[in-house]
Amino acid sequence: MRVSSSMINDQGKMNNFAVEPKIYVDEQGDRTGFTTYAELLNGRLAMIGFVSLIALEVLTGHGALGLLAKL
Questions:
Q1: Backbone torsion region of residue 61, taken as left when φ is above 0, otherwise alpha when ψ lies between -120 and 50, otherwise beta
Q2: 10-50: per-residue pLDDT in tens?
Q3: Paired strand residues for 14
Q4: Measuring CA to CA, which residue among 64, 66, 69 is closest to residue 52?
């Protein structure tokens, strides 16, 4: 097996990590304010809430306000 010289370090030992990993910057680092991430999260939570209210009305026969009026 032929080993290239770039894989052997100055001490004569084989360097299995000769290729450095690519470094990148996370573009979503700032997750506060009106960002795309915040809008997606708000939309998803709103959909979950809306479906939950529909399920509540189907299962109980009363809406959310109707259940609160009975308390």
A1: left
A2: 777 776 665 667 777 666 666 667 788 889 999 999 999 99
A3: 8
A4: 64
**Angular region, 33: left φ>0, alpha ψ -120 to 50, beta rest:** left
How does 1-25 read in b/e, with b if 16+ C-beta sit within 10 Å?
Answer: eeeeeeeeeeeeeeeeeeeeeeeee
Phi then psi dihedrals of residue 61, to 5 deg: 85, 0
Evaluate whether 70 touches 62 at the Cβ level (below 8 Å): yes
Please state the pTM of the whole predicted model: 0.49
If you write DSSP's letter for every residue of 14-66 in order, what string do you get? B-TT-SPPPP---TT----SS-HHHHHHHHHHHHHHHHHHHHHHHHHSS-HHH
